[in-house]
Amino acid sequence: MATELPRKQAVVVGVGWAGGIIAAELTKAGIEVIGLERGQEKTVDDFKMQKDELRYALRYDLMQDLSKETITFRNDQDMRALPMRQLGSFLLGTDVGGAGIHWNGQCPRFLPYDFEIRSKTEERYGSDKIPADMTLQDWGISYDEIEPYFQKFDETIGTSGEDNDLTAPRSEPFPTPPMKETRALRKFKNAAEELGYHPYQVASANLSEVYENPDGQTIQACQYCSFCERFGCDYQAKSDPVITVIPTAKETGNFELRTHANVRRVSYDGEKTDGVYFIDTRTGEEFYQPADVVVLTTYVMNNTRLLLQSEIGRPYNPETNEGVIGKNYCYQVMASAQGFFEEERFNLYAGAGALGAALDDFNGDNFDHSDEDFIHGGIVQITQTGIRPINTNPVPSDVKSWGKEFKEASLHYFYRTLTVASQGASMPYRYNYLDLDPTYKDALGDPLLRMTYNFTEQDRKLAAHQTKRCAEVLEAMNPDKIEANEDIGDYDIVPYQTTHNTGGVIMGGDPETSAVNNYLQMWDCENLFVAGASAFAHNSGYNPTPTVGAIAYRAADGIKKYFENPGALA
After folding, report:
1. Containing domain of residue 266, as a range?
2. Among 64, 129, 228, 541, which residue is least crowded by beta carbons within 10 Å?
3. Is the pLDDT of residue 570 over 70?
4. DSSP strand E in 237-316: where?
């Protein structure tokens, strides 16, 4: 029998970016909050002098232990789903701070087009432009409504960047100037400008200068050390939840953090929730945490899984296209071209997770799709994240991947290889979804989440288009050899692609087609809010974190409204 703990006004499940933001905003308003995190606590001291590529980048020290919990995967319903046994396609974070600890720090805002994508697509091209099995829908909110929350996230993390006419409009300037421009980035910009495009320095949470945010938290200036992605920042120069929103919540005196608390189920009586059940991962003891409001802010997959396990909301059925929990799982469509230079060398050893230059001429609906057989697009960019020695071995495809020839070529091209890449948008498809696996269970005996996902014709055509654009810019940079592959084939769960998973508990203006309203409040459970990229009705051609931050700030406003007027939708 579960041990019942003292009641709290709000319980936040998962303490990463979304959970930290909501905890900070609620506690500043005087609301008592407990944060439950199944991992251990992390502080800045844990990452000092920890530039260990083997430990973090290859052995995934900050990631989820798949021997205890994983997901199962299949490309389609005719396949048998099998457990993901090794981290590959995406990296599931754990511990306090979540994926916000090991992110790169790239900070683009989704475009106005994204939030009203179905309406705007039909308005410009007609309804026939959207395939019948593409479950595309508006988000139930406009960019103008969400822009103040984007601005608040930028001010909290101190985003460094510069304006561009094709990116989302801003009500205020970037809090800090753009990062340094390297020779590789200038070469990309010159080539893009020669082609008539509009390059700019990307928005970054690796800050260009020391910054104090409105809550009094200080973020240091980036040292360009190359240890961002998969690492915690030992300089405290990459904005993350551990140095921003979590200390802000703690300083109010209204926040309690409980680690090693793995939430298994949300209590639900058919109308409301009264709290959550969790296991102490060290002792195996079960606890019940009662609360007036429950906020799920775990990773995309776990938000969906918790709702399905708790039987809250209507599970999505791809055969009937009815139900909402598990619907519209999306990923990202990657494309790239690689250039090899025989004589020219670049200082690629230095870098940062969000040090880069980009163009948005082929993102969103910034270009005419009338003669294209796909919608949306993606950012085209070059990033200088820093090359680390163990995992960096760029060689042309005609070089053997082993032996003396490989070693010589690897050393030669180490500083002579540049990649121009596109992060393409992912549109929802009727048969790409999440549900509970009927066969496999985790270490606690709970069913694993099952992912059914494959690239669609929309994805393949978008990838081919973006690959051509990447190669075009790269060719203008004058490498000696270019390699690019337009065919992305079928989706594979193993090779790393991106950690940008979205959907499953999507937001919208209609309870029939969405799980939460635009304050991320469950239509079917008024005192349950579900925040994170699980709310995205599709994935844009950008990194998702700033949009996660923006909707988390809006959710915090919704929760405060609910406390002022219990029993009503925010």
Report:
1. 3-42+70-384+416-564
2. 129
3. no
4. 255-258, 261-268, 273-280, 286-296
